[in-house]
Specification:
The complex is a heterodimer of chains A (about 250) and B (about 210).
Chain A (H helix, E strand, L loop, with lengths): L1 H7 L3 H28 L5 H43 L3 H17 L4 E11 L18 H13 L4 E4 L2 E2 L7 E3 L2 E4 L3 E3 L3 E6 L2 H9 L5 H10 L2 E12 L12 E2 L2
Antiparallel strand pairs in A: 1-7, 1-8, 2-3, 2-7, 4-5, 5-6
Helix pairs in contact in A: 3-4
Chain B lengths: L1 H23 L7 H37 L5 H14 L5 E10 L5 H13 L4 E4 L2 E3 L5 E4 L2 E4 L2 E3 L3 E6 L2 H12 L8 E11 L12 E2 L2
Antiparallel strand pairs in B: 1-7, 1-8, 2-3, 2-7, 4-5, 5-6
The chains are: A alpha+beta (about 250), B alpha+beta (about 210).
């Protein structure tokens, strides 16, 4: 290529047209090469269509999920107004309403603020080692579960993960690269875990070399991000849905 | 030089097109099993949200009716309070479910995984060796034993869960499959299981209302 350009030097009109032709040819070859490169990892068309159908189902269900959450929140606000109005009418309603307000804090329906700790977590580097099947560089839902459990053990009073409040019914699950919490809400990294409580106690729990030892070792090996910071002013949101018991009948 | 730029442009154009397609198909690029798991979870979550919505509508109607007749429906408020207390583990509960009995030592993360799976399968109330557990109850290993919110418990471990027995059974089988290679585990469905232990609400010392 370099020798062809040198030979053309000095003959302007043919140089331009030749350059254009060479460029066009090169562009087409590159397009072809890249198309080839592109077509290699793509699945066959039937699998592609199947995946598209599944994606469409997810999109529809997630839209429905958002609508339902919004409906629940608006009903909660309406019920709260009616409960406050009822509390003005009778002493028994007033007493029950005061207890209900307290209980809403206990179950995580109300946002809180205060001192605490923030932990950030993100995927590390894929070593591209065919013999390493550990996926140790990826943050898994169990990692979040372990951190949340440790924070409760270290005295946390309220916790959120990527702005999703951890409530008594919260579980962590996965769907491919996403972590699912609270009514199939999809979270993806980087993850921010916020815990309210005594900052030194929460930090000493996380710093304890006997705790999260596997995660800390993956952080060293794969560069998986694990960092924490104490703060005097943090916020956790309230849970964005409600609770219904279908099987557990209260006896008291 | 022009050819080199053209070469790069050509390649970049296609790579760019490919990346856009991948972003659009973020889910589609995942394996079908993962997407199917997500669909299953979304279906279950939407059913639960719909139930919450219906319950709130009923509560709204009851409160509104009482207010319209000049009174107040304290019972509707108490009903909501009772549900929230049960969810927080502050009331004894009973209902269908299952009991997992583990005859040997287990690690804290194995019990946490089991609880997480059972909760994900719609489990509504739990107890381990008589201690009530909610998601905020820490479980830590102490040698061969476990600490449940500071209480030492030892094998045999009996984990009780209230919920849909069929759903819970699937989660229990998933959770105990690896355990069963080294300890004896039994899972028994119950038509009426009682969880009588309760949790005391913890007063907030550091956290304050408002977000």
């Amino acid at each position: 290529m370099r020798s062809a350009l040198i030979r053309l030097h000095g003959t302007v009109p043919p140089r331009v047209s030749l350059l254009a032709s060479v460029s066009l040819a090169t562009f087409l070859v590159a397009l072809l090469a890249a198309t080839q490169f592109r077509s290699q990892p793509l699945p066959p068309s039937n699998r592609f269509a199947r995946n598209q159908a599944l994606t469409q189902s997810v999109n529809e269900l997630e839209a429905q999920n958002r609508r339902l959450k919004s409906q629940v929140q608006s009903l909660q606000a309406s019920v709260k107004t009616l409960e406050d109005d009822s509390a003005q009418r009778s002493s028994s309603a007033q007493q029950a309403n005061a207890l209900l307000d307290t209980q809403k804090t206990v179950v995580g329906l109300l946002g809180l603020h205060g001192p605490g700790i923030t932990i950030t977590l993100h995927d590390g580097n894929d070593p591209n080692d065919p013999s390493d099947h550990s996926l140790g560089w990826v943050v898994h839902y169990q990692d979040l579960q372990d951190i949340v459990n440790l924070l409760w053990a270290s005295g946390a009073e309220a916790i959120s993960v990527n702005q999703q409040r951890v409530v008594p019914t919260t579980s962590f699950f996965y769907a491919g690269v996403n972590v699912l919490v609270n009514n199939a809400t999809r979270l993806s990294g980087p993850y921010t875990i916020t815990a309210l409580g005594d900052p030194p106690s929460l930090e000493s729990g996380v710093k304890d070399p006997d705790q999260l030892s596997e995660l800390k070792s993956r952080s060293r090996i794969y560069g998986l991000g694990l960092a924490w910071q104490r703060s005097n002013s943090l916020r956790v949101p309230g849970y964005d849905a409600s609770f219904v018991l279908r099987y557990a009948q209260p006896a008291g | 030089m022009v050819s080199l730029i053209a070469l790069l442009l050509g390649f970049l154009l296609v790579v760019q097109l490919r990346s856009q397609a991948l972003v659009a198909q973020n889910l589609a690029s995942q394996d079908n099993t993962s997407v199917a798991l997500l669909i299953n979870d979304l279906n279950r979550a939407n059913t639960q949200l719909l139930e919450q919505s219906v319950t709130l509508e009923q509560r709204e109607a009851a409160l509104r009716q009482a207010l319209a007749t000049g009174g107040a429906d304290a019972k509707a408020i108490e009903k909501e309070l009772t549900v929230f207390k049960a969810v927080a583990g502050e009331l004894p509960v009973h209902g269908s479910g299952l009991e997992i009995r583990i005859e040997g030592p287990v690690q804290d993360f194995e019990v946490q995984d089991a609880l997480n799976n059972l909760r994900n399968a719609g489990g509504e109330a739990f107890a381990l060796n008589g201690y009530r557990i909610v998601s905020g109850t820490p479980i830590m290993s102490r040698g061969d034993r476990l600490m449940v919110a500071g209480h030492v418990v030892a094998a045999p471990y009996v984990l009780q869960a209230i919920g849909d027995p069929e759903q819970l059974q699937m989660a229990a089988d998933l959770s105990t499959s690896s355990l069963q290679t080294r300890v004896q585990v039994s899972v028994v469905r119950k038509t009426d299981l009682a969880i009588t232990s309760v949790l005391e609400p913890r007063p907030l010392v550091y956290a304050q209302l408002g977000s």
